[in-house]
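Supplementary Methods S3. Complex input for the nicotinamide-adenine-dinucleotide-bound model.
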Amino acid sequence: MKLLKVGVIGLGGMGAIHAKVCSALPDVHLQAISEMSAERLEAVGKDLNVQEQYRDGAKMIEQADLDAVIIALPNHLHAKFSILAFQKGLHVLVEKPIATEIQDAEAMIEASITAGRTLMVNFNQRFKPLHLAAKKIIAQEKLGEIYYAKTKWLRRKGIPWWYEAGGKGALSTDIAGGGPLIDLGVHQLDLALYMMDFPEVASVDGTTFYGLGKKDGERRSINYALEDAGVALIRFKDNRTLLLEASWIMHCKNTDEQETVLYGDKGGMRLSNIIEIYDEQDGIQMDTVIKKYDDVNEGGLVGHFCRVAQGKETPVISGEQALAGLKILKAIYKSAETGKTVYFD
Ligand SMILES: NC(=O)c1ccc[n+]([C@@H]2O[C@H](COP(=O)([O-])OP(=O)(O)OC[C@H]3O[C@@H](n4cnc5c(N)ncnc54)[C@H](O)[C@@H]3O)[C@@H](O)[C@H]2O)c1
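Predicted complex, serialized as structure tokens:
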């Protein structure tokens, strides 16, 4: 099998992990890496023995001999670098959210179609063995039709202050495109939509909350201009409904609370760090707990992306699905700002 030559742009928290995963995958060669910070670039290059190093990601796309690129840059740069990569005929795995603006996400999809190359977004929650098992159970019709779902990712005190990119002294929408909704909510939303088979949206009602983050930011001399938390009710055209909650800072019980609950006409399912299924058989109410799952995907989503680029697997995640999620997130912010329901066509 021909080696897939991969480059990684951005070697912060996520990019360094992606580079490591790539370097260990069979039939994949981590050809080049790119990072603005010389220290990070050197450290990863040394650790993974990658000679081809670039400070400028655009230069790497232009000059390196690559088949695919993984983009782990701050959110506002996802579109620019993805489009550059497609113009060079590369497959692209980009971090979530797909982009900070709907038009940018649309342009990325367009560029991927024109290039005939894969666009995948790192919705790695879908590839957790627990969630892969849950999807399998749902595909076996164990829940019947899922008519209502609740999904949340709440952090008690977990603002990612390192998103304060470029030493601007601010955590603002121009870099991240939003706060916990677009950072954590984007994962939970995607996961719930995936479990519900991406129903068409009818309307979105959203609320955002502010205050705690601003106070915490003042202590660090960072102007925190994002929401602390967001809540939304998403109604689908077939009347199914999804409740989404996301927070970076909130007086919730635990440091980190991540949970999805799906209610179907045959059974219910709760996903946290285990799977619980609730149903009824012959008048007997049954609770099933599943704790062990085979990890069948070598390299998680990055492994899947590489195998898709090699033509060995068909993509589980599409740019269109990521765009559908971004449209909902944008509608949540709009609804929160205007105090009105946002209706979809
Ligand atoms: N999928 C997940 O679970 C998950 C988790 C955390 C973050 N993320 C996403 O990953 C992305 C990066 O987040 P992170 O936490 O790794 O941030 P980070 O700040 O740790 O890393 C970003 C890196 O990009 C570098 N960079 C910025 N501009 C560059 C350029 N023009 N060329 C080369 N390098 C450049 C920065 O120096 C930094 O090292 C974000 O989009 C974030 O939403 C995803």
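The chain has a mean pLDDT of 95. The chain has two domains: 4-122, 126-296.
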